[in-house]
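// run 5 | inverse folding | seed 20
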């Protein structure tokens, strides 16, 4: 679920290096796409958080907070770009990327716990 907003938000700064109006429109659309996709991503994250253990939930709260700040800053970036203040939009997107990276590291930590091997519920057979 995170691929769409993260991909859109991290592609927009690359397009910001090109000053032509078509590329600026594309970057603006990518930022907007990321903001829209963040809603379903957050919903899926909340569902996963609800099933996690206490320790993972604590990390999840910080993860969600960092990502929420990033989404709000990206929303500001999209608004600035739509109003014609592209430079401010670029600066806001770069600031939001810092929060996204920090939140992404915490999300990776939470995700790594899902891949840990679990003990088998079946009884172990012993050799005689």
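// decoded
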């Amino acid at each position: 679920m995170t691929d769409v907003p993260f991909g859109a938000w991290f592609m927009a700064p690359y397009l910001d290096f090109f000053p032509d109006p078509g590329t600026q429109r594309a970057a603006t659309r990518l930022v907007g796409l990321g903001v829209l996709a963040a809603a379903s991503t957050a919903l899926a994250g909340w569902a996963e958080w609800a099933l996690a253990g206490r320790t993972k939930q604590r990390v999840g709260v910080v993860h969600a907070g960092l990502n929420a700040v990033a989404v709000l800053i990206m929303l500001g970036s999209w608004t600035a770009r739509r109003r014609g203040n592209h430079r401010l939009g670029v600066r806001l997107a770069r600031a939001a990327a810092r929060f996204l990276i920090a939140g992404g590291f915490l999300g990776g930590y939470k995700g790594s716990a899902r891949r840990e091997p679990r003990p088998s519920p079946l009884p172990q057979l012993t050799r005689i």
